[in-house]
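Job type: complex structure
Entries:
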Amino acid sequence: MGESLISDRLVPFRWLAAWTDPALLRLFSNGPINCFLFDRLASARGIVDAARAKGMETMEWAALGAAPFDQVKWNISAPQVAITGLVWPQLKPPARGDADAGPTGAPWIDSNTWVKRLAAARAPRRAIWLGFERPKDDATPAAAAYTTAIADSAAAGARWMVILDDKRQEGVATGDPEALRTWDAIIAALRFFQTHRSWNAWPRSGPVGVMSDFAGNNEFMGQEFLNLAARRKLLYRVLSRSDGNPSLEGLLAVLYLDREPPTAALQSRLLAFARSGGLVIVPRAVAASFGGGRPISCPVAGYEWRPLGQGAIAAATLDRDDPYFLAADVHNLIRRRSDPFTLFNAASLWEHYSVAPDGRAAVLQLVGFASRPYGSVSVAMAHSWRSATLYVIGSVLPTHLQPALVEGRLELHLPPFSNYAALEFHS
Amino acid sequence: MTRRSLLAGSGKALLGAGLLPRAAHAGEAPVAPVALARCSSYGAEMHATLRAMFDQIGGLGRLVKCKTVAVKINLTGNPDERLGYLPLGCTTWTNPDLIGAAVQLPGKAGARRIRLLESPWKSAEPVQEYIAAAGWDPAMFTRAADNVEFENTNFLGYGKKYIRFPVPHGGLLFPAFDLNHSYADCDVFVSIGKMKVHVTAGITLSLKNCFGITPCTIYGDGAPMDEPSRLPLGGRSPIHVGNRQPAKPAPPENDSSSPREGGYRVPRCVADLVAARPIHLAIIDGIEAQTGCEIIGPGARHVTPHLLVAGTNPVCVDAVGAAVMGFDPMADRGTAPFETCDSTLCLAEQLGVSTRDLRRIEVIGARSAGVVFDYRKAGVPRPRGGSLSDD
């Protein structure tokens, strides 16, 4: 089974020190936000009391234990893990003179998806709250930028601790129309994800498990692999090396990332996985200890393919120090035909895929980072679902999509949407 | 159609004939007939049409029986970028049905082994995975004949070393190329181009398709100077702009003071390549294609010329291909489609590959006077709200 996502009740908002008028609580009437994070409760007593009177949860920032990822105390018993210092989710403009900025180059995207996925592996069954602020030089229209920020967190199963930039803080408080439109977009996005929070209880699905301790010498490769695998639309599950008995159910492959060998028990587990038909991908540093049969031709450069039982060991013959290339290798080793979906015209869309525990429903969430609408996205499906329904933020009614047969495969042709779309499938 | 009707259809071909200097090595150039056919769709109709065309040019058996056949397909651009909702095989890539037929028919004609070759952009990914990213099932091809293989020729691939291909007569840009072994380990080399215009080279047909046989480990941006990189690290902009020489020991270009301009360099490089690595069978997929540019991008428009062109000489095939696109194959720099570049057809002719002169090329097959499909006219954008498709 995949990681189980918590559907937490609280939707947090960082109350702004400049907002001293309790009347501003009207902004939250009947809205999804139900938890205010104050810098100091004592210095905002009037608002705190008024908020509590309206049934709002209030918390002091310091009590939250919020910390950058590498300083988080994972073992404390708080219901939330609050992680700060994260990136503002956005499409990064290509650097001037960047040779990779050609017409067929994939765009660079800042996302916190990997943070949430790794945090969920370290603190299972705790809500993950993410902290980041909009950069002052972000040129994306504010409403779209905030929608993407919320969607990037929510689609991954986390909460963004919503905080407004200075201009919107003031504008919302004074009734500026543009700021209020942005506020409405924020509320609409939060409301959407609250409405569909059941999706977060569905396990994440992906063909490959990524196993590492994601720390020390393995921190860079482990974390960047998770980040860049998403860029390649390689769906994965995080497997902690310290978990002596990780669930490998439903996986086609396990990538063992670390250069230190696994414990004997874990190695035995991985070899058993291979013998039963799985693929275990190992770095050169530990390749010898994994054994396997006599190598046969491997279509992916830099690997030996060693048959083992009904499966195989793919042993790197060279050290890979670029996590993007490693992600590409893994994607090719497990074969892209094992992807549950193939997306087209989706270079700046990131996908999140969850399957209901009974396997009879699934949701594919697409988070868009471009400022322009997505006009011609196609989704080719490996699985034959009985129905597909499209949900977008701000639309009251979902759209039922009819598949088209293209080159022998069923595809969905999505109508134009902005920033976010979800496809719910049923069999 | 007849040669005469083709010339009349292109409208400009005769105008250009005889106005250019005599090709440097044209006197020794072979000329081969070209099969031209209308074909309204991929699938069964295309399969039957292609088989008939192969018969018209002398049959495949004499060419491929008991031979290893290497087929260079055209997979330009990213596999997950489409023009609207259209699959890539209908716009920028060689259509998978056509590739399947180009595997199956040689297989039936007795080919011993068939290798599908391409150098996906900046990538060492297996070709079968690259096409899977476009939604294609590689089994479409491996089931079409016995002994079908794939190879990404953007790097060493399955080979142990690069193979040097000298350019006859010394070459226009490079004296020789170092290429993946698959271009040497074959008896028959097939180029399947897509009928497209090209921003740098004017048109891209079976000749220009061979630009992609150069490995980026040697000719790419990220290649070290002293030796090829193990994997491709960048695109082929050094060939476009001449900002660096190939990785050693591949020979450098002939004249490092020549223009550093794509319109000069790319056509010469292509002409050199097809002279160094001769094409035995050229096929142009013009059933559905794209105009405006060669990759998915601004200005790209879907077109449906419903045409197939095939022959054993790529210059003859591309000359006919250019003509049915509404261009004069005798045109040179300054005239459409070569407004800002030199003509690859002219340069290949200079290297003695063949002639682009339609008066010397026997065109077999379609007899419809309406076969010319004007790519420039089709490229005029429709008013907003119009369809992407343009017949």
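Summary: Chain B is about 25% helix and 15% strand. Confidence is low (pLDDT under 50) at residues 7-22, 381-391 of chain B.
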